[in-house]
Amino acid sequence: MVLMKEFRVILPISVEEYQVGQLYSVAEASKNETGGGEGVEVLVNEPYEKDGEKGQYTHKIYHLQSKVPTFVRMLAPDGALNMHEKAWNAYPYCRTSVLEK
C-alpha cells in the first residue's frame, strides 16, 4: 500500500526563491551535523534526466553513531547505525528511499 500526502502552503515568496532557501537550509544543516567521521557522507550528487523529468540525484550515507544512546551503540552490530538515502529531487517533486545496509 502506498500512501501519498500533498501539502500546500501559501508563502509570500516565489517558488524559485523558496527552492534556493530550501537548498541552502539543507546544505547548512548537513554541514552543521557533519564532522569527525560522523553526520552525512555524500557519495553521489549529480544531475539526472528520466522520462522528461530533470533533477538532482543524490546518494548519501547518514552515520548515526553519535546520535544514539551509548547502550544502543553497544548493542547494535557494525554498520547498523548507517543509513543509505537515495533521492531523486526534481523540484517540487522528490522521490526518496532510505535503506539500512
Automatic annotation (TrEMBL):
Gene Ontology molecular function terms on file: phosphatidylcholine binding; phosphatidylcholine transporter activity; phosphatidylinositol binding; phosphatidylinositol transfer activity
Catalytic activity: a 1,2-diacyl-sn-glycero-3-phospho-(1D-myo-inositol)(in) = a 1,2-diacyl-sn-glycero-3-phospho-(1D-myo-inositol)(out); a 1,2-diacyl-sn-glycero-3-phosphocholine(in) = a 1,2-diacyl-sn-glycero-3-phosphocholine(out)
Keyword Electron transport recorded: no
Cellular component aspect of the GO annotation: cytoplasm; nucleus
Residue ranges occupied by any Phosphatidylinositol transfer protein N-terminal domain in the UniProt entry: 2-98
UniProt record similarity statement: Belongs to the PtdIns transfer protein family. PI transfer class I subfamily.
Function: Catalyzes the transfer of phosphatidylinositol (PI) and phosphatidylcholine (PC) between membranes. Shows a preference for PI and PC containing shorter saturated or monosaturated acyl chains at the sn-1 and sn-2 positions. Preference order for PC is C16:1 > C16:0 > C18:1 > C18:0 > C20:4 and for PI is C16:1 > C16:0 > C18:1 > C18:0 > C20:4 > C20:3.
Name of the protein in question: Phosphatidylinositol transfer protein alpha isoform
